[in-house]
Amino acid sequence: MEMRTLGRSGCAVSALALGTMTFGAETDEAGAHEQLDVFAEAGGTLVDTADVYSAGAAEEIVGRWLAARPADVRDRVVLATKGRFPTGDEPNALGSSRRHLRRALEDSLRRLGVDHVDLYQLHAWDPLTPLEESLRFLDDAVSAGKVGYPGLSNFTGWQLQRAVDVAGRDHLTVPVTLQPNYSLLARGVEAEIVPACLYNGLGMLPWGPLAGGWLSGKYTRDQRPEGATRLGEDPARGMEAYDRVGTRERTWDVLAVVQDVAEARGVPMPQVALAWLLARPAVSSVILGARTTDQLRGNLGAAGLVLSAEETARLDAVSDPAEPDYPYGELGVEQRSRDLAG
């Protein structure tokens, strides 16, 4: 599997990462351990989890897998987790305050059975905690050897830039990654977030690369999903999400081109969608999430798929989100341009 650096850091990671949000929920422990084995055997190294995945069970499952594997397997794993979302009912059981993050990190280390993680990410922006407080905690955790690198997740463009600027101003460890939602059906990050990552040297770790199953080809115009889906935790929310996405003509246009490219290549649709994302600017590693080992094996096939310029251009064109003309379209670009010829 191709190796890339984790953003501007010198840490090497596999171009495909294994996400663990299904562990302890849709995937039982035996299935999760099988996925981790298959991922490691395929050359995968980056394993991404979070304290709120299955209320901590996902971290425990990963921890037991690590403890049961030989040292050479454990040593290859680049372990990432996150803190920010609620882990209890009291007011300080969430957010990016020093108080919550300290306990969240310690609890994650305990569940994972390790004394440090390679990447610790703020799971989202906290409007109530001064950014200086959160970044100082991350810097202290790095200095204490409990965290290798700090990262961000679900930050907007201005929030990302503010975090980098504050860290630089206060001589704190600068975040090296951003984890955003990004796929052929979710390209909004390209307006502000991708340029900010490129400018600051942050590597992107896209989650939801198959858009909740849409890019796998599992949904059709005439066949609505039954029960709970990856689009929502319960049937009602799943249907709402299906109706929201499935009524967009662009969705079906994108799926048609993905299917066409996949059939011409003789590969499954998910591999085409993943290969497109792997080639996008600033992407360090794409996070795969799978309910079953068979799904994971199929998705890992994207590691060896390189799309042609023509295939990429077709996918780019059909998935173009058509940003408003101002400030991102022709008018905005013209206003921000400058020609030395006068």
TrEMBL record:
<feature type="compositionally biased region" description="Basic and acidic residues">
    <location>
        <begin position="333"/>
        <end position="342"/>
    </location>
</feature>
<feature type="region of interest" description="Disordered">
    <location>
        <begin position="318"/>
        <end position="342"/>
    </location>
</feature>
<dbReference type="GO" id="GO:0016491">
    <property type="term" value="F:oxidoreductase activity"/>
</dbReference>
<dbReference type="GO" id="GO:0005829">
    <property type="term" value="C:cytosol"/>
</dbReference>
<keyword id="KW-0560">Oxidoreductase</keyword>
<dbReference type="InterPro" id="IPR036812">
    <property type="entry name" value="NAD(P)_OxRdtase_dom_sf"/>
</dbReference>
<feature type="domain" description="NADP-dependent oxidoreductase">
    <location>
        <begin position="16"/>
        <end position="319"/>
    </location>
</feature>
<dbReference type="Pfam" id="PF00248">
    <property type="entry name" value="Aldo_ket_red"/>
</dbReference>
<dbReference type="InterPro" id="IPR023210">
    <property type="entry name" value="NADP_OxRdtase_dom"/>
</dbReference>
<protein>
    <submittedName>
        <fullName>Predicted oxidoreductase</fullName>
    </submittedName>
</protein>
<dbReference type="InterPro" id="IPR050523">
    <property type="entry name" value="AKR_Detox_Biosynth"/>
</dbReference>
